[in-house]
Design a protein that fits this description.
- Belongs to the class-III pyridoxal-phosphate-dependent aminotransferase family.
- By secondary structure, the chain is α/β, with parallel strands linked by helices.
- 37% of the residues lie in helices and 16% in strands.
- A 7-stranded mixed β-sheet has the order 4-10-9-8-7-5-6, sandwiched between helices. Strands 11, 12, 13, 15 and 16 form a 5-stranded antiparallel β-sheet that branches.
- It is globular and about 60 Å long.
- The chain starts with 19 loop residues before the first helix and ends with a helix.
- The protein binds 4'-deoxy-4'-aminopyridoxal-5'-phosphate.
Length: 442
């Protein structure tokens, strides 16, 4: 069986000694849920409660969450819980009736985007959003060809899994899909932006050479599964220009980088000064309530909208948009974009300071509260060290601090705390990381 890049820290049956209660739950779980699910960590976690940046197990033990970007304004945020409860007790219907909340929310959300993007459509998941964006882009361009980065993840539907190479080599890429190397400034240096733009141009040329008309280039604004590449702000411009020159549309997948995560603005693409044709979003949008969507330029959706009706039973339902509205309230009220910028920069500075003592920390990068730490066995030639990254992820879990890993070589720590992370939380995290590094490397 080949690796699944997105699950570098998956629990492996029989590899670790577990207590009887945990072993029994895992046995029931695989008996009931079947073989396709995976669990994090060598010692999987059983969680029963969450509050703010903390998660709790049945014994009441607390774990610092530095990983979950869904509950980005904190677990079980009372403002969101109240909005959901109040709306669920009042009216829970769909987009086929007139309802003010969806209009208010769409207006607020579109106001955070460039003027060129004028419509907002609602889905239930990020996969669902990327699937819809693909249909729209393919309809607009009349093409099917798709370009993605080589370890991208965009979702689980049939069409989207065909352009999600991080699912691993057991899941086939579509014949209309081409991959380009991730924009790895750590290895590619100054020429990265040009090389990335050239790779996108070459991928579209190759599609055409095979009789496949280009439709879209889609990328995650922080290249999360590729290994967290923030690059120099603006580097995406060349790739977007190459996309448009090929007659394709640029889809900004903001499922990871949206809603203030990257600390510069609400959306990851804004760091690059590019204006997408379609923007997809999900995860943190409802802080745990399933709500996702596609924002689009009016001219791109115009013909599609006249040809095909769009209805998504739960997408944009009255409860979902109230949850999403409460999330925006908190982001604005608590200046969480700024907090992500400040605390993220503080954490990166402190981790960079550890590089002298631990040269195995090859690179510390990211934007806002999306941090990637690349572990290497030889800093001179930057040899990826997946074993070390996995040992640190599991070591932190033993310290009750939750992160995970990513990247093609599975050697990058993926650190993505809730946007409400405080400096104290950051210090707690950093102290645990230092203990784990000392234990693992000294
Ligand atoms: N795009 C990106 C960049 C993602 O990270 C994910 C989820 N990890 C998705 C799309 C799919 O979202 P969902 O799981 O809500 O379908």
């Amino acid at each position: 069986m080949k690796t699944e890049v997105g699950m570098v820290n998956a629990f492996v049956e029989g590899k670790t000694e577990l207590d009887a209660a945990t072993a029994e739950m895992i046995r029931r779980r695989s008996a009931l849920l079947g073989p396709a699910y995976r669990l994090f960590y060598e010692r999987p976690l059983h969680l029963v409660r969450g509050e703010g940046v903390w998660l709790y197990d049945p014994e009441g033990e607390a774990y610092l969450d530095a990983y979950n970007n869904v509950t980005s304004i904190g677990h079980c945020r009372p403002e969101v819980v109240e909005a959901i409860a109040e709306q669920a007790a009042t009216l829970a219907t769909n987009t086929r009736y007139i309802h003010a909340s969806i209009l208010d929310y769409a207006a607020r959300l579109l106001a955070t985007m460039p003027d060129e993007i004028g419509h907002m459509m609602f889905t239930c998941t990020g996969s669902d959003a990327n699937d819809l964006a693909t249909r729209i882009a393919q309809s607009y361009t009349g093409g099917t060809g798709i370009v993605v980065t080589e370890t991208a993840y965009h979702g689980i539907t049939q069409s989207v899994s065909e352009f999600s190479p991080s699912l691993g080599e057991n899941v086939d890429m579509g014949p209309h899909v081409r991959t380009v190397p991730a924009p790895d400034a750590y290895r590619m240096g100054e020429g990265m932006a040009d090389a990335f733009g050239d790779a996108v141009a070459a991928a579209f040329a190759d599609l055409r050479r095979h009789g496949i008309k280009p439709a879209l280039f889609i990328c995650d604004g922080i290249f999360a599964s590729d290994g967290v590449f923030d690059g120099p702000a603006g580097f995406l411009q060349k790739a977007v220009a190459a996309t448009r020159a090929a007659g394709a549309l640029y889809v900004a997948d903001e499922v990871q980088s949206g809603f203030g995560r990257t600390g510069d603005a609400m959306w990851g693409f804004q760091r690059h000064g590019v204006i997408p044709d379609l923007v997809t979003m999900g995860k943190p949008m409802g802080n745990g309530y399933p709500v996702a969507g596609v924002a689009v330029r009016p001219e791109v959706i115009d013909e599609f909208g006249r040809k095909a009706r769009y209805f998504n039973t739960f997408g944009g339902n009255a409860v979902a948009v109230r949850a999403a509205g409460a999330v925006l309230d908190v982001i604005e009220k608590e200046n969480l974009v700024e907090n992500a910028r400040e605390i993220g920069a503080y954490m990166r500075d402190r981790m960079r300071a550890l590089q002298t003592e631990y040269p195995q920390i090859g690179d510390v990068r990211g934007a806002g509260l999306f941090i990637g730490v690349e572990m290497v066995s030889d800093p001179e030639i930057k040899t990826p060290d997946a074993g070390l990254a996995t040992a640190i992820v599991n070591g932190l879990r033993d310290e009750n601090v939750l992160i995970s890993g990513c990247a093609k070589a599975a050697n990058v720590l993926k650190i993505r705390p809730p946007l409400v992370f405080t400096r104290d939380n950051a210090d707690y995290f950093l102290a645990a990381l230092e203990r784990v590094l000392e234990r693992t490397l000294k």
